[in-house]
Amino acid sequence: MPSQTIRYAVFIASMAGLYLSAAMLVPAAMDFYFGNPDWQVFTVSAFTVGAICLASATANRGVPAPFSRRLGFLVVNFLWITLSVTGAIPLYLSTLGLDPADALFESVSAVTTTGATVISGLDSVPPGLLLWRSMLQWFGGIGIVAMGLLVLPFLKVGGFTVFKMESSDTSEKPFARFAVFVRAFFAIYIGLTVVCTILYAVLGMSEFDAVNHAMTTMATGGFSTHDASFGAFQSPALIWTGTIFMAIAGLPFSVLILFAVRGRLDALRDPQILAYGCILALMTLILALSLRLSEGESFGMALTHSAFNIVSVVTTTGYASLDYTLWGPFAVALFFLATFLGGCSGSTAGGIKAYRIVIIFSSIRSGLMRLIYPNSVRPVRYGSVVVEPEMQRSVFLFVCAYFGIWAFGAIALAATGLDIETALSGSITALANVGPGVGPVIGPAGNFSSLTDTAKLILVFLMLLGRLEILAVLVLLIPAFWRE
């Protein structure tokens, strides 16, 4: 591989690390205001990391390499590794006393918007550290949308190219100029975060809780400032507000931009949005009826908690309003299934994603029809658009790799001494970037602190694999990728 390509990828990652080091001054100011000594940790980390990243950027500055698939793969991987390691430094040096594996796990969980945590006693953690965790998730959400809409479609490994395949616009991007699109995306992402913050504050959260939860809601990350997660706020109005904003964050941002900026109502007819909405509505209704019949809960409260927790898991946010593992085996099985699904392509959500589910079901239907009518032509469709064979292969390759890595991850976790329930749910919750698993150890009422360092590092790798759509990481393991 040309050295210019590697150097340019390092330059981009170094600039991202430089910006993140500057962001450390925000929690530093927060801790300084409240008299917490961790302000010194954030300040020292900011200047140290900033100096290293600035030196690296300066050393690798030069003529930009032409964008290619190899450069794209390198940039995606280098960016997430840089952000993960950089984000872990103040966590490791802080008064929390985290070891390197714990600090890296918490940082990777944040920037991949997974939401799994190794920190207990969140209610008493210094505000600067809580804010830093939320900021990492919010920044991670920005990077995920940008990657899913602008980078991965070009690399043809994921991030379904909504610009070419969505039914509302089959030929053009939402905006002809890239800069206009970027401004529109930032305006909507920041605007939704601000509106969510205001509503949370008006409905009963403290200003600090509102800011943190709004950032992690829009990032579908799920980090909370309380051990009880969203269960610390039992107001139905707050719970429904969180449900709505999580559902919005699971929608394609390109469609949100078309709708908000251009008034394109037809953009909402994207087939993956219909599938996404039907999955949420059906699973919520089934779970609410189950709770009403088995637990004797009023249908209103059953619907409230079912909607919140189903939307939280499907969008891979990972909040919990209650310990849903206590709702019985049927509920646990339903949530385990929901862990695999994910939101829409081009959103901050993880998982398999709705567009792949649409294509898989269309492929199955087309195959069954050809069994009945062997001589018929039954193309695989995404709405009114015919899905090209290359896209079909990409989807099935991803899904096969997804389930294979989940199985190998579960076996690796079981080898560290975890029980089969924890190993199976831990592997998929990391790969899908959901956060909580099932069972007493890593369920919504627990956390990942009791796991061994080896298990945590396995989960770190799975979180990065899932966030980068698997194939974008695995391609770096092929020797041919590095050859000239």
UniProtKB/TrEMBL annotation:
Stored InterPro entries: Cat_transpt, TrkH
Residues annotated as binding K(+): 113-114, 221, 316-317, 433-434
Membrane topology: Multi-pass membrane protein
Domain of life: Bacteria
Regions crossing the membrane: 7-27, 39-59, 71-93, 135-155, 175-203, 237-261, 273-293, 326-348, 394-415, 457-482
Keyword Membrane part of the UniProt annotation: yes
Subcellular location, record wording: Cell inner membrane; Cell membrane
One example GO MF annotation: metal ion binding
Assigned keywords, A-Z: Cell inner membrane, Cell membrane, Ion transport, Membrane, Metal-binding, Potassium, Potassium transport, Transmembrane, Transmembrane helix, Transport
Cellular component per GO, a single term: plasma membrane
Main localization, broad class: membrane
Function: Low-affinity potassium transport system. Interacts with Trk system potassium uptake protein TrkA.
Family affiliation: Belongs to the TrkH potassium transport family.
Protein name: Trk system potassium uptake protein
Organism of this sequence: Hoeflea olei
Lineage: Bacteria, Pseudomonadati, Pseudomonadota, Alphaproteobacteria, Hyphomicrobiales
